[in-house]
Amino acid sequence: MGKDINSISESELAKLRGLEIGFVFQNFNLVSRLTALQNVLLPTHANRRIDVNVNQRAKHLLGLVGLDDRMEHRPTELSGGQSQRVAIARALINEPAIILADEPTGNLDSKTSVEIMELFSELHRNGSTIIMITHDPETSAYADRTIHVKDGYIENN
């Protein structure tokens, strides 16, 4: 990215966050009245890359996460793993340089957690930078690099 964020305006900073950083939350944060497809498209309402057909990209991303047959379903009609996959597709819609994931497997069973982490591994192999927060040693085992924080300080590894 190579941008000095200390010298840009609030609106430029918001645009940078919207286009360059994808967020995956522990609790999914999907809008219950919207379909999976509409949830994936949500970030494009505030920020979007002009050279991208966002509808086509959203459908492609839902296919990538294995939900091409659930695009028109609302979050209440999806399992926890499916909801997290929608959240991951939403995080990827603007082709961010970085994905921030806060306990992305925290609300999932062990089988679904493995599936989500394998998806993250594939995204990483394809060039995505993923910064993940987790307390789970099995989840952190997927990382190429780990940093341990205790009481607000980085521990020596």
Plain-language structure description:
By secondary structure, the protein is of the alpha/beta class. The protein has a single domain (5-154), classed as Rossmann fold. Helix content is 39%, strand content 11%. The chain has 6 helices and 5 strands; from the N terminus they run αβαααβαβαββ. It has helices spanning 10-20, 36-41, 54-64, 80-92, 110-125, 137-140, and strands at residues 21-24, 98-102, 129-133, 149-150, 153-154. A 3-stranded parallel beta sheet has the order 1-2-3. The chain has a two-stranded antiparallel sheet with strand order 4-5. The protein starts with 9 loop residues before the first helix and ends with a strand. GO terms for molecular function: ATP binding; ATP hydrolysis activity; transmembrane transporter activity. One of its GO terms (cellular component) is plasma membrane. It comes from Methanococcoides alaskense. Residues 1-157 form the ABC transporter domain. Pfam families: ABC_tran (PF00005).
Descriptive tags:
157 residues, alpha/beta, Rossmann fold, three-stranded parallel β-sheet, two-stranded antiparallel ribbon, globular
